[in-house]
Amino acid sequence: MWKDEILEEIHRIREEHAKSFNYDLDAMFADWQKKQAASGRLVVTLTPKQRSNKSLHPTAP
Fold first, then answer.
1. What pLDDT, on the 0 to 100 scale, is given for residue 55?
2. Which residues fall within 8 angstroms of residue 36, CB to CB, at 6 or more apart?
3. Which of 1, 21, 35, 52 lies most in the core, judged by the most C-beta atoms within 10 Å?
4. DSSP state for residue 28 in the 8-state scheme
5. Which of 9, 11, 17, 19 lies closest to 34 in space, CA to CA?
6. Are 51 and 41 in contact (CB under 8 A)?
């Protein structure tokens, strides 16, 4: 079977990160936020789009 070395590396890194925080999602998320803030990159938060009340499948008359 064909193996993707890059994908395997990503999985390994993600597993190591999760294990280092004892698989605690809150701690992992806090770490990601800390790294994001430390990166100095501009982070854009988009407002959610307004949902229409129109049905995607209108009923027949």
1. 67
2. 43
3. 21
4. H
5. 17
6. no
Contact of 36 with 43, CB cutoff 8 Å: yes
Backbone angles phi, psi at 46, to 5 degrees: -90, 145
Q: Which tokens is 37 given?
A: 């803030």
Query: Each residue's pLDDT tens digit in the chain (61 positions)?
Result: 788 999 999 999 999 999 999 999 999 999 999 999 999 999 888 998 887 777 666 665 5
Give me the helix-helix angle, 25-39 and 5-20, nearest 10°.
110
Helix (H) or strand (E) holding 14: helix 5-20
Judged by DSSP in three states, 55 sits in coil
